[in-house]
C-alpha cells in the first residue's frame, strides 16, 4: 500500500472552511482499488458511465466523507469505508456519488474547476481536489487556489434538490444492478441527527450532503419499493471483504487485526490480513509464510503476489521482491501500481534499464503517481539521459503545484532535449504553465 501525500484545499472536500489548506494522504493500493472497481462497475454502467474511466480513490482520513470533483474520480475517505458494514452500504455511497456525475451536478462548478486546475495535460488527474507529492516522507508542495471560502463552499456543497435527485438516481442504479437498496437507508441512518449539531461537529459528509428527516423518509420509501429487485451477490461481498479487510489491516493495530482476521469468513482474506499484521510487527518470515498460504488459495491473484512483493521490498529483500512483483506483472500487465512497484524493486537491484521500461509503462497508464515519476527521473539520470530526467522532474513539480521549481527543471530539459522532439514539446508545456503562474503572481 502506497501512501502519497496530498495538499488539498480543505474547503474543496468539506473538511473545514476556517483554514486555507490541510495535508492529507491518498492511499494507493492495487488490491483495494481493484476491489472498489468491482463493486462500482455495475452501478457505473447503470448510471451510463464508463467503469474503466471512473476511478474510486481512497483518501486517508478517519472522518466520514465521499465526494466528486469531476467525471472521472470518486473519492471516499478511509473512515467512511471502514464504517461500512456491508457491500450494499459501500455501493450505496458509490451509487450516490455516481448520480451526482450522471445528473450533471458538476456543471455549475465548471468555472471554479477551471480556476482550480494547474498544469493541464501534465497528468494532474486530481485537478482541483489535490496535489500529489513524491512520497510520504517528502514535503508536499502548495497548490494555491485563490478563491473565497464562500466560493469553495459553493464548489463542494450539494443543494437539497441535488441530494434528492441523487438519492432517487442512486437507488435506481442500485435496483438496476440488483444491489440491496436497504444499504442506502443504512448509510443515511449513520448521519441522522447530524444537522442538529454545529457545523464544526458534523461529519464532512453531512456538511456537503445535507440530510433532512423528509429526505430520509423518502429514501426509506423508495428503498422499500425496490426491495424485490435485490439479488444475492457473493462476488460483491467478497470484494468488499478484500477492500475493507486490507485497509483495516494496515490502519488498525496489528493485535486488533490478528484478533479479528477471520471476521469476513474468507480463508484467503483472513491469511492476507494476518500477513499484513505480521509484517507490521516486523515478523517477516511469518508474514511471508502466511501470504504464501493465501496465494495457495488464489494462485492466479496478482494482488496477493503484489502484497508479498511489498512485504519483501520493505524488508529489504530486493531480489525476492522483484521476483514476486514480476510474477504479479505477468498476471496484471496493465496495472500501473504493480508496474511501478516492480520498477522500483528492479531499481533497488541495480537493473536500471529494465526498471526504466516498466516505470515508463506505469507512467503512461497512470500519470498521477508522483512516486513513479521520481523513480523514472532517477532511472533516466542513471542512464545518462539528463534531459528526460529534468523533464520528468519538472512534470512532477508541476503536478504538485510547485510551478516555480517546475519551470527551472523544464528550462533545463528544454536546453538538453532535441528541439521539436516530443520531450522538448512537453517541456514547453511546463514552461508555459510556469510563466503563466509567475505572471499571475505579479
From TrEMBL:
Q: Which Pfam families match?
A: Peptidase_M48, TPR_19
**Which prosthetic group or cofactor does it need?**
Zn(2+)
Work out whether the entry's keyword set contains Electron transport.
Answer: no
**A Gene Ontology CC term for this entry?**
membrane
Looking at the record, the residues that make up the Peptidase M48 domain are 36-221
Keywords in alphabetical order: Hydrolase, Metal-binding, Metalloprotease, Protease, Zinc
UniProt-listed GO biological process terms:
proteolysis involved in protein catabolic process
Instruction: Identify a single GO molecular function assigned to this protein.
Output: metalloendopeptidase activity
- Does Hydrolase appear among the keywords? yes
The name under which this protein is listed is: Putative Zn-dependent protease, contains TPR repeats
Native source species: Roseovarius pacificus
Amino acid at each position: 500500500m502506497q501512501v502519497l501525500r496530498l495538499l488539498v484545499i480543505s474547503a474543496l472536500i468539506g473538511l473545514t472552511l476556517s483554514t486555507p489548506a490541510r495535508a492529507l494522504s491518498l492511499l494507493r493500493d492495487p488490491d483495494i482499488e481493484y476491489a472498489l472497481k468491482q463493486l462500482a462497475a455495475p452501478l457505473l454502467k447503470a448510471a451510463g458511465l464508463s467503469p474503466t474511466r471512473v476511478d474510486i480513490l481512497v483518501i486517508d482520513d478517519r472522518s466520514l466523507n465521499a465526494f466528486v470533483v469531476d467525471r472521472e474520480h470518486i473519492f471516499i475517505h478511509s473512515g467512511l469505508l471502514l464504517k461500512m458494514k456491508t457491500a450494499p452500504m459501500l455501493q450505496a455511497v458509490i451509487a450516490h456519488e455516481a448520480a451526482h456525475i450522471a445528473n450533471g451536478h458538476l456543471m455549475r462548478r465548471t468555472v471554479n474547476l477551471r480556476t482550480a486546475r494547474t498544469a493541464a495535460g501534465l497528468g494532474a488527474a486530481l485537478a482541483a481536489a489535490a496535489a500529489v507529492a513524491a512520497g510520504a516522507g517528502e514535503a508536499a508542495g502548495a497548490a494555491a487556489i485563490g478563491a473565497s471560502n464562500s466560493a469553495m463552499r459553493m464548489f463542494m456543497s450539494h443543494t437539497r434538490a441535488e441530494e434528492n435527485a441523487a438519492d432517487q438516481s442512486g437507488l435506481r442504479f442500485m435496483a438496476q444492478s440488483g444491489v440491496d437498496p436497504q444499504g442506502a437507508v443504512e448509510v443515511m441512518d449513520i448521519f441522522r441527527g447530524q444537522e442538529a449539531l454545529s457545523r464544526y461537529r458534523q461529519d464532512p459528509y453531512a456538511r456537503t450532503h445535507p440530510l433532512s428527516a423528509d429526505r430520509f423518509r423518502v429514501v426509506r420509501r423508495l428503498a422499500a419499493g425496490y426491495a424485490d429487485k435485490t439479488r444475492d451477490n457473493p462476488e460483491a461481498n467478497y470484494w468488499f471483504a478484500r477492500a475493507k479487510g486490507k485497509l483495516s489491516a494496515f490502519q488498525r493495530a496489528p493485535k486488533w487485526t490478528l484478533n479479528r482476521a477471520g471476521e469476513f469468513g474468507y480463508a484467503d482474506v483472513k491469511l492476507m490480513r494476518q500477513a499484513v499484521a505480521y509484517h507490521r510487527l516486523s515478523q517477516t518470515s511469518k508474514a511471508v509464510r502466511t501470504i504464501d498460504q493465501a496465494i495457495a488459495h488464489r494462485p492466479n491473484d496478482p494482488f496477493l503476489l503484489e502484497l508479498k512483493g511489498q512485504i519483501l521490498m520493505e524488508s529489504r529483500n530486493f531480489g525476492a521482491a522483484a521476483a514476486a512483483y514480476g510474477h504479479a506483472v505477468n498476471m496484471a500487465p496493465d496495472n500501473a501500481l504493480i508496474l511501478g512497484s516492480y520498477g522500483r524493486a528492479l531499481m533497488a537491484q541495480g537493473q536500471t534499464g529494465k526498471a526504466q521500461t516498466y516505470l515508463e509503462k506505469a507512467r503512461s497508464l497512470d500519470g498521477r503517481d508522483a512516486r513513479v515519476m521520481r523513480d523514472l527521473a532517477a532511472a533516466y539520470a542513471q542512464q545518462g539521459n539528463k534531459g528526460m530526467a529534468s523533464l520528468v522532474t519538472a512534470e512532477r513539480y508541476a503536478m504538485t503545484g510547485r510551478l516555480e521549481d517546475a519551470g527551472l527543471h523544464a528550462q533545463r530539459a528544454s536546453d538538453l532535449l532535441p528541439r521539436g522532439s516530443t520531450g522538448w514539446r512537453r517541456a514547453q508545456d511546463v514552461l508555459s504553465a510556469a510563466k503563466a503562474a509567475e505572471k499571475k503572481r505579479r
